[in-house]
Amino acid sequence: MTATSEANASELAKVPSEPLKEGAASETPKEGAASETPKEGAASEIPKEGAASEAPKEGAASEAPKEGAASEAPKEGAASEAPKEGAASEILEETQVPVATPEAPAPEATAPAPPSEDVPSAPLLLTVEDVSDCSVTVSWEPPEKLGSQGLQGYVLEFRKEGASEWVPVNARPMMVTQQTVRNLAVGDKFFIRVAAVSSAGAGPPAVLSQPVHIREIIEAPKIRVPRHLRQTYLRQVGEMVNLQIPFQGNPKPQVSWTHNGHAVDSKRVNVRTGDQDSILFIRSAQRSDSGCYELTVRLENLEARAAINILVIEKPQPPSSIRLVDVWGFNAALEWTPPQDTGNTELLGYTVQKADKKTEQWFTVLEHYHPTTCTVSDLIMGNSYSFRVFSENLCGLSDSAAITKELAHIKKTDIVAKLKDFVQRDFSEAPSFTQPLADHTTTSGYSTQLSCSVRASPKPKIFWMKNNMNILGDPKYRTFSEQGVYTLEIRKPSPFDSGVYTCKAVNVLGEASVDCRLEVKALATH
Predict the structure, then answer these.
(1) Which of 12, 324, 366, 516 is the most buried (most CB within 10 A)?
(2) Which residues contact 332 (CB under 8 A, 6 or more apart)?
């Protein structure tokens, strides 16, 4: 290196100190000398970092004031690059241009670099789809420019209001246009942005204009009354009452119970309320516990009500009095008065019973009978009867009954039997066949039967014949009768057993006969 080039290099090293303070590093591209530097890879890093403080690390001109022009110029390539671009004096003249006008306004060092064609543009239409008490769902449309390197996905980030750090939702780019940010706290406000990413880097982000406020979602209160409680709920005295009523509401609503418009008696009624239901419990119900129980679920200005009617009942008292009004023939008329206490519910009717004096056993005459008068019929002559009446409701019959004080006597009446002369009828009849024998064809070796029916009085004697020859006593034949039907069974007949069979019936009044022809076919042989 010559003395002239070293002097120029030393002056070159001194010049950038003033532009760094005034932001002249950003002016270098305007003069043309530094425009060549991005080709060598030194000054091209300045726009990416966006700060003047980074320029000394990337360019030779910024390092010269710190280390010395002569020593650093060969290391960083500023002096070596000068011959490629022209004489050192040309570089000096070009770099001295910002110093000539230090009062000129310079742009900020943090100004973003113009978008590169390799980086995608910002996503479009970033909107909030849904907000719950712990999550936010956002969606967007793909950017207009995907970049020359292609789109690898999107990176969604959120920042809490008042904080400076953006927190990524996904560590790696994801090829989705809708995403949910979860595990957020109620009451917080968040800014959300999304950027498209390619292999060349992330593009400019799309940011929501307003922060998203995470509020606790209010769910209107609602009561679900079980089906069996939608009508009057009946319990007997002494039984347990246990009502479990589900409800809904968010946040947890206030729950209260009233009995006939007043607060429930905590000494008799226990109320336990959870997050989703309320239980009303009475250990031993009394008639005073009957009435309308109303459940109220209130949440801020919203409320829901449900009324449940409870009726505690017991067995009724018996009728107040009963009397025997009249007795005639085989009938007795009764009359009674209703009971004073029906058991806190309406009566289903009365049950009337009778008992005769001899056996003293009670038999039910009428059930579920509503009138207070009745007539008991079909009483037995000569007996004396007592009557009693029970009251009945949903719990059953009353524990006791009203009993008549007088007995109903069914008197005997004078009855004269008029007997008619009995005419003896003679049922004697000579034998006659009501069903004759029928011709029959059978196969050799298969037992067959011949049947006929005879009517006669007195009972006739039956004779069986084959070709007018008596066959009784022959073991090949078996005879039997049932209800006037007589049957002859021929056991395993052969063609020899073919012929005319006759059945003859004989009694003291006469005789009758009937016959048929039997044909026995031999088995075919091959």
Answers:
(1) 12
(2) 324, 326, 375, 376, 379, 385, 387, 408
Residues in the chain: 526
Q: In this predicted model, what pLDDT tens digit does every residue of 5-21 receive, in sequence order?
A: 343 333 433 333 333 33
Cβ proximity of 509 and 521 under 8 Å: no
CB-based contacts of 524: which residues, under 8 Å, 6+ apart?
none
* Helix H or strand E segment including 199: none
Three-state secondary-structure class, residue 126: strand
CB 314 within 8 A of CB 343: yes
Dist CA 129 CA 408 (whole Å): 90
**DSSP assignment string, 297-341:** EEETTEEEEEEEEEEEE-PPPPPS-EEEEEEETTEEEEEE---S-
DSSP string, 155-177: EEEEEETT----EESSSS-BS-S
Strand 136-141's sheet: what is its strand order? Answer: 124-131, 136-141, 178-181
Chain segment 218-268, per-residue pLDDT in tens: 788 899 999 999 999 999 999 999 999 999 888 888 999 999 999 999 899
* Predicted TM-score (pTM) of this structure: 0.44
**Per-residue DSSP letter, 516:** E
